[in-house]
Specification:
heterodimer; A: alpha+beta; 4-stranded antiparallel β-sheet; two-stranded antiparallel ribbon; 8% strand; globular; B: alpha/beta; 5-stranded mixed β-sheet; 14 helices; 14 strands
Chain lengths: 459, 336
């Protein structure tokens, strides 16, 4: 036997499976690179012969146009390096901890260590940001900012919609899915129609519906719905008083965060004691004390953290305060409703895919319906739900570009303006593609990590 | 969708094989149709009539060029303002006639050639009559609806910045959506070129409720655009337009052009209409081209009156667009 096997080791490299696999991969890579390079060169030559200027230098030019919705972008100035360093350090330490735990046991990282890692990854950078808070500048886009800042503002608007849309559509989707599974005939049928209706109408049509039909029914500025100045609603949007941070704002916010963290720890401790000893621990009062006491203390020490800025009718519109524009609302509502229908189906199919025996067994253990769902069904369903949900999140990010149609200044809309002002079509389309690719990859990356966490139950 | 379309047109730029720089005329003749870009919907300039035929001021100049080169068919590509320039650069169209403002950066940097200004326009603002506004400087804090991807966005920002007053823009991709948003009351102001405002007003629920402010905040010379580098093609477009302008000056109309060709004793009319001399054959066209052009679209005045004039829903005055002999800016170089 060994004599027969021996010559196999001497198979020339190009005939061994691995060797051939490598060769094919290299050929493929070479072909791809050749294609990319020739495309690049072809473009450059074409642009040159047509007398079209190229390059990214125009991004530094003054934009000169206004953007309707501007979220301030915090840009670390001097502390940027330290911020990045602390971010890297946090990630590295987390990685080390996870490696160490994995080598010690086969079990997935316990939630205790997970929270330590999270704390490191988020806390360390936040701490540096706090230390260098004076060197963080909140940049508000104006007409005299550069094209680059305009793009960044558009990107900020896109991300805002994407994040809110993902969270909201998941919650709504879960509710609709549970509604469809409900034994109540009416509820389950309403949910069924909700899904069918939203799934089968094009998303652009739905955006138009929300924007031009629903939101334009609101009253005019002068006939606004006004709740004593606290809440004002009209065609131009929803206006609320805004918080203007004062000197003690940092301290106050920190106190609130610490308060919540403390409550969480108290809660966990009580749970552990209950699990180990069976003695219930009262946590309401200590929790409340921490939650209210800490911020109150911060208020006393640092002075009033915020003042309120009320919206006032001045000239054409309400000035001051904060609020939602109809464009933003229509986009978020439209995308959320549309995607929630798909999410509901994904969640429902995931739940129904868990075998009936599981549910019966759980009931036999005298669990109530909520416990059955929370402890037995959902964890198993998650493994089926998460991968297709990723696609839906990607869909939100990409469909947010439809906002051009309803006047919300997101990334594509702003890019389009720049494209037309500067004429740099190839560059702008390149930036569009690159940025959406990055957003998509980031979402998939995050969801894959989450997926590997929930999927790690097999033994 | 919009993203998809723009990206696609851009891919055409990336992929444009070496389409011969010169020779647009040959290509058009070989194809048997003229590829032209125009508005999606802008009444008076380019819109579909009740028979589904494309009509309008901008369309008439496309038809004039098609008549000049004697191709039976025109392939219209409806474009948003964002898509129009890449479409021309990439060769998807050979002639863009879509109220495009002649600016230096577009002319110099983008591989484009602006031909003749067919309409001297300026950016204006439209508001509701009930607001009682007479001066644009009273618009501090107004919400302004406008279309993305045009000089409009820069002009309005400049205007408010210059006067130290503020505004909130709401920017749409397509002119019909701008109109809808303004008409439903989302915005206080609708801004675009004054001619465009007139066109959009004619489509409002109650056109009489809206007033166009007298303030003109920019110069907007509008006209057809071609690709840079094909001089013969841009000359054809130029002289076709100038012919319609000169025809008005000389009193040549759609109705009497054949009679003028046969009977006119004016040597310039004879040269212009190709009866004597070789002006049109030197340009690469045939001798029948000028008569064909006027027979198809008429002279400049007829084109204006038919699409924009006081008898149309747009009710525009000639203003700057009168003949030079009447104090306007419409002026064709000599046919000599």
């Amino acid at each position: 036997m060994s004599e027969r096997l021996a010559p196999q080791n001497k198979v020339p490299f190009w005939r061994s499976p691995q060797g051939r696999a490598w060769m094919f991969q290299l050929c493929m890579l070479g072909g791809f690179l050749w294609l990319a390079v020739s495309m690049y060169r072809n473009t450059l030559v074409n642009l040159k012969t047509r007398g079209i200027s190229s390059g990214f230098g125009f991004l530094g030019n003054e934009a000169g146009f206004r953007i309707g919705e501007v979220t301030g972008i915090p840009l670390p100035q001097g502390g940027l390096l330290w911020f990045l360093l602390s971010l890297v350090a946090g990630l590295a330490i987390s990685q080390l901890i996870s490696r160490h735990l994995k080598s010690k046991s086969e079990r997935p990282m316990s939630s205790k260590w997970l929270s330590v890692c999270l704390l490191l990854c988020i806390g360390l950078p936040m701490l540096t940001l706090y230390i260098f808070r004076d060197s963080v500048e909140i940049v508000h886009y104006t007409e005299s900012s550069s094209y680059f800042m305009a793009l960044l503002t558009g990107l900020g608007n896109t991300l805002k919609v994407t994040v809110i849309g993902c969270v909201a559509s998941t919650i709504l989707g879960l509710l609709v899915a549970l509604g469809r599974l409900s034994p109540n005939w009416l509820l389950s049928n309403i949910c069924r129609w909700y899904v069918e209706l939203n799934r089968n109408l094009p998303v652009l049509l739905q955006l138009f519906f929300w924007y031009f039909i629903v939101l334009q029914q609101l009253p005019n500025v002068r006939k606004s719905i006004d709740l004593g100045g606290w809440l004002i609603l009209n065609k131009r949007g929803l206006y609320l008083p805004s918080l203007v941070p004062q000197q003690g704002a940092w301290l106050f916010c920190a106190a609130v965060v610490v308060g919540f963290a403390a409550v969480w720890i108290i809660h966990r401790r009580a749970r552990r004691i209950l699990d180990e000893t069976g003695i219930p621990v009262k946590i309401l009062f200590p929790s409340l004390a921490v939650l209210i006491g800490l911020p109150a203390l911060a208020w006393l020490v640092g002075g009033q953290p915020f003042t309120l800025d009320f919206p006032v009718l001045k000239g054409f519109n309400f000035k001051g305060g904060t609020g939602l524009t109809p464009e933003f609302t229509a986009l978020v509502v439209g995308l959320t409703v549309y995607v929630s229908a798909f999410n509901a189906e994904i969640i429902r199919s995931g739940i129904e895919a868990v075998s009936k025996g599981q549910r019966e067994a759980a009931r036999a253990l005298a669990m109530n319906e909520r416990q059955v769902m929370r402890i037995v069904i959902l964890p198993q369903a998650m493994r089926i739900i998460v991968p297709p949900m990723t696609s839906e999140y990607l869909a939100i990010a990409k469909n947010s570009s439809l906002a051009v149609a309803i006047g919300y200044p997101e990334f594509v809309s702003v890019g389009g303006t720049i494209l037309n002002q500067s004429g740099q079509a190839v560059e702008i389309v390149g930036v569009w593609m690159g940025v959406y690719l990055c957003i998509s990859l980031l979402i998939s990356f995050g969801m894959n990590i989450y997926n590997s966490k929930v999927a790690l139950v097999e033994r | 969708m919009a993203l998809f379309r723009t990206s696609f047109i851009c891919l055409l730029i990336v992929g444009m094989a070496s389409i011969a720089q010169a020779g647009t005329l040959e290509n058009v003749k070989k194809d048997g149709f003229l590829k032209a870009g125009t508005h999606i919907e802008n009444p008076g300039f380019s819109a579909l009539d009740s028979n589904g035929k494309r009509v309008g001021f901008d369309v008439d100049f496309i038809r004039a060029v098609a008549a000049a080169v004697d191709v039976p068919e025109i392939k219209y590509t409806p474009l948003t303002s964002k898509e129009r320039l890449p479409a021309l650069q990439s060769g998807e169209i050979d002639l863009l006639s879509r109220t495009t403002t002649h600016t230096m950066s577009r002319d110099v940097k983008l591989g484009l050639d602006f031909t003749v200004t067919t309409l001297y326009d300026g950016q204006g603002m439209m508001v509701r009559k009930e607001l009682g506004i007479t001066d644009a400087k009273e618009l501090d804090g107004a919400t302004v609806c406008l279309q993305t991807g045009s000089t409009t966005e820069l002009n309005i920002s400049d205007f408010f910045r210059k006067n130290n007053i503020s505004f909130t823009p709401v920017v749409f991709d397509k002119q019909p959506d701008v109109r809808k948003a303004y008409d439903t009351g989302r915005c206080d102001v609708h801004t675009t070129d004054i001619s465009g405002l007139a066109a959009q007003r004619s489509l409002m629920k109650n056109p009489a409720d809206h007033v166009i402010l007298s303030e003109v905040i920019s110069k907007e010379p509008l006209g057809p655009v071609v690709r840079h580098g094909d001089n013969q093609w841009s000359d054809i477009v130029r002289w076709t337009i100038w012919l319609t302008m000169a025809a008005e000056e000389k009193g040549i109309t759609q109705a009497n052009v054949e009679e003028m060709y046969a009977k006119s004793k004016d040597p310039e009319v004879q040269r212009m209409l190709g009866k004597t001399g070789s002006l049109w054959t030197d340009l690469g066209l045939d001798k029948g081209a000028p008569v064909r052009i006027i027979k198809t679209v008429g002279n400049y005045g007829e084109i204006f009156d038919r699409n924009l004039g006081p008898k149309t829903p747009l009710r525009m005055e000639r203003g700057l667009n009168k003949q030079w002999t009447e104090g306007g800016l419409i002026y064709a170089p000599p046919f000599r």
